[in-house]
Specification:
The structure is a single chain. With about 325 residues, the chain is of the alpha/beta class. It has three domains: about 170 residues, Rossmann fold, CATH 3.40.50.10680; about 80 residues, CofD-like domain (Helicase, Ruva Protein, domain 3); about 35 residues, no CATH class. The chain has 13 helices and 14 strands. The strands form four sheets. A seven-stranded parallel β-sheet has the order 5-2-1-9-10-13-14, with helices on both faces. The chain has a three-stranded antiparallel β-sheet with strand order 7-6-8. Helix 7 runs parallel beside helix 9. The longest helix has 21 residues. The two termini are about 20 Å apart. Bound molecules: guanosine-5'-diphosphate (GDP) and calcium ion. The site of guanosine-5'-diphosphate (GDP) has 24 residues, from helix 1 and helix 2. GO terms for molecular function: LPPG:FO 2-phospho-L-lactate transferase activity; magnesium ion binding.
Amino acid sequence: MKIVVVSGGVGGARFLQGLVAAVAPADEVTVVVNTADDLWLFGLRVCPDLDTVMYTLGDGIDTGRGWGRTDETWNAKHELAAYGLDETWFGLGDRDLATHLLRSMRLREGRTLSEATDELVGRWSPGTDLGRVRVLPMSDDEVETHIATTVDGTDTVIHFQEFWIRHGARVPVRAVEYRGIESARPAPGVLDAIAAADVVVLPPSNPIVSVGPVVAVPGVAAALRSASAPVVGVSPIISGAAVRGMADQLLTGLGVEVSAGAVARHHGARSADGILDGWLVDTADADQVAGVESAGISCRAVPLWMRDPATTRQLATDVLGLAGDLRDGGR
Ligand code: GDP
Ligand code: CA
């Protein structure tokens, strides 16, 4: 079976750990990772979601923080602050820096982000879950999510990372823009993987800044709509709140209700020009199943908290179960 997952960072990476545990050895897992969180910092290309997926599946992640490397130190960051540089709100650890140095070096040599990613992933793959997953950036072209907001009474547009990390998502969201998306092309392999998939999964990644940019890359939404595989998603919202992160602030800012059902309707049914055939909500949100189904999306209520390896694996099994039923029953 060929499984394609459209992923952001933490939510997607955790789900992938469960998926790798749930699938059979012959199954092929491809992850298409959001790159619209990426930014240039001190001349380095930083790709937060690619690195979270790589470190998480490669056993290099700091599990306490949920991002960055294990046993990290912060000397370079403190030195940069001592030089008076302003961008030290972003957590660049010393070990993590090596990843960004290598990636940036390859990009300057004229390699693509896909090629640089292959080289980085190659280090972590042997003997880890990462070895079971093909990692594709959504695009080799630069796309950056910017947030129109108001800071200290002044309207401004800032990079998503500045909104999230520097401001802790405590400034209002007036609009979200995927800068560069019109001219971005899907990275090599992305459209083919979707077309050849038996199942396409939207894990519980942020709908606006993780899944949103991937789907907005020209050609990806059309590929999802014409795929022969069912597209099944997992709600990142449980009981009206994001489990982790800032999905609620973004949804509210864009006028989408913060609920599992509203996120499904935001993505829309494939039968109505959207991208979803199936959707999982948490058992706490069982009252939303009917509303999702009336939008033309098959919906089930199952436990969605990825608390530990067992619950995460069960969630992946439930996704594959719903996808299997959709395939058997036709859509
Ligand atoms: P990011 O790029 O690091 O923000 O990660 P993602 O976009 O992949 O995932 C972030 C989303 O994952 C947030 O909106 C969370 O609500 C959601 N999330 C995190 N942990 C869980 C969980 O255990 N269960 C569910 N259902 N969602 C989760
Ligand atoms: Ca992200």
